[in-house]
Sequence to fold (272 residues):
Amino acid sequence: MSETEAQLIERAKRDANAFGILYERYVDRIFSYIVYRTSDAKEAEDLTARVFFRALARIGDYRQRGAPFAAWLYRIAHNLVANWHRDRSRHPSVRLDDALTLAANGASPHQLAEQSDDARRLLEALRRLPDERQQILLLKHLDDLSNLEIAQILGRSEGAIKSLYHRTLVELREMLEIRD
Amino acid sequence: MNQEYSESFQDIETRLAQTLAPVAPAPAFRARLRESLLTAARHQVLLEKPSELRWLWVIGAAVLGSAAGVLALVLRARVNHKPSPQVAAPSH
Fold:
């Protein structure tokens, strides 16, 4: 019988290899999220490392309360990214190059040329949104999370996320129409 | 109106899905971080073990202490109930 995630997490509290499995399972998702939140691949590496070291230090206190383990990791990532922005007094919209270049891996140069301008305008608009709205869009489209999972990460109700998501789409569309 | 509304949402959602492609970390970074984490995790497990042993020591000491107390009480009770030596009655 295969091990459930809850069993794996319990084992990871005492077994380094089990923690390694959790790391393999989530590192790409966490890194991806942080790259888009920081627009800087090097900073994203540093912050990803901090997320997992913090998770390791606190996994002994982790309790299953209905929310997926990913939600717990995203909360750690969210707090570290928020501190990172605060420490550097950076506005989220600084550099888009890293996220775009890295995300374009695998696309042909022709596709890239066609997509990059549109993608750049969309990302610029996204980064002008308030912090929480950026997160909702990233978690929904980058990681395909449900409204409930996003609500658990952001500490909001499912209904609040649904409503905020739709308001964000309206706002984003208006921003793009103004620029188009 | 509603159809137009949902179509414009669909358009923006498609653009978001195309733009927000997952970004994988560099393989070297991924492997290096994994090694560092496993080393730290093994160290953490080793550090936690002595605290478990410390609890075992505390529990063991408490059990031994209680047993010694009970034994002392039993011995004392036995001494107190020992029949006093027979003393010959004075002859008249």
User: Anything to note?
Assistant: The mean pLDDT of chain B is 78. Residues 9 and 15 of chain B are 10 Å apart (CA to CA). Chain B touches chain A through 30 residues (CB under 8 Å).
